[in-house]
Amino acid sequence: MNDLVVCPECAHEWVPSEGVVADAPGERVIKDAVGNVLNDGDTVTVVKALKVKGNPSGIKAGTKVRNIRLVDGVDGHDIDCRIDGFGAMQLKSSVVKKA
So what's the pLDDT on residue 22? Predict the structure, then answer.
């Protein structure tokens, strides 16, 4: 429909380019909580405390995460990483700040 794309099952309408920031076609730019561009291999700091299922303490604000990898994750989880004491997990870019 004109400039909108419509889902045939639920009739949800959206603009195809909405929500994607790109420098070149096919390339996504992922930004942290304060607007810095993130790259593979960066070190980031968690800016707010996060609850982790199965762990009573969770991840504290200020925890450094080294050597991140940017992925097309599920439900906004676009950072794949390994956190000491917790193991491999995915984080949202909105809860980290580039160190």
Answer: 47
